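Incident review: delayed structure delivery

Summary: a single-chain prediction request sat in the queue longer than the usual turnaround. Root cause was a stuck worker, restarted by the on-call engineer. No data loss occurred. The affected request and its eventual output are reproduced below so the record is complete for anyone auditing the incident later.

Affected input:
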Amino acid sequence: MIWPLFESLKVTIPLLPQALFARTAVTEILSIARAVRGSIDVFGFECRLSANADRVDLGVRLLPAEDAVGGVPGRRSACRRDEPRRWLRAFTRDPARFRQLVSCVYLEYDVTGSPRSAIPSVFLPLNDGARRRNRSPRYADVEGLLVDLMGRDRFAACARSLVRCFAELPPGGRVLVAGAMLGRSPETARLSISLPRSRVRDYLGLLGWPYWSREISDVVKSLGAHSASVLLDFDVGASIGPKVGVHFATEGKRRTRYLCGRLSELGFCTGAKKEAVIAWPGVDAVRLWKRGWPCRFERYLSHVKIACAADGVREAKAYLGVAPRFPLLG
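Output delivered after worker restart:
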């Protein structure tokens, strides 16, 4: 099912905890949703967890079927004038190849942009080897996807660094997501990579990011003590960085409470925001106001992330999701 973005977001507003969603943040994300409209499969929010950090970015997920890709936010009647649609045509040129490579599409709208011309950054989770004949994503696959998104001239600005990201991957390393930061820096790509914990520092050093300090390592170990791998994301331009994000999965309320508690102890999350994140997962019965549809909106916590820079850990974020569904009959 493909859901109307603006209507779905609007009925969710009363469910948003004030500790995470200041009034200005709600106004901003509504403005973006009203401007881009369109349809989605899932939508969500990128929330900052430190004190006095009220910015919330809007994210949506699409499935890579032709109808879902065609429903990317952006009015059909304005296709020729709508900037985000320029890269949409690249998706639909070869939908079979796209579905083979990509499991879904994530669009992220930064509130710092202009709502009237909201251009999203685009993230493409790559299919696992089971669907791709047990073959990990290759540089050539990612190059093709990013050239379609960015254009060849823009892609050229990050191509050399991107080649190195693949060439230096250690055994056990895997590229999970490729993206184009069209909403922030059109000549910049984004990679999400899973690495063995013991290889993170050396890998980043080989890419020219020498800031994986003992402090950062200790924080990562504290938050993911039982994980043998580390999930990183970083921008790729002429070089990588300047920040590196580290993702931590949330698997159940006990794990979420531990992660948020540790972030609070480390000073990266306020007490009120910690409790709001822990309480976020749940199910609500809602009705889309224009169509009168009775729906189930399933609220979930995707993951939390810390952003690391040359001076150590900068901030923490929580990624909250909402999955609209029709209730099961009977």
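Verification: DSSP finds eleven helices and 13 strands in the chain.
Action items: add queue-age alerting; document worker restart procedure.
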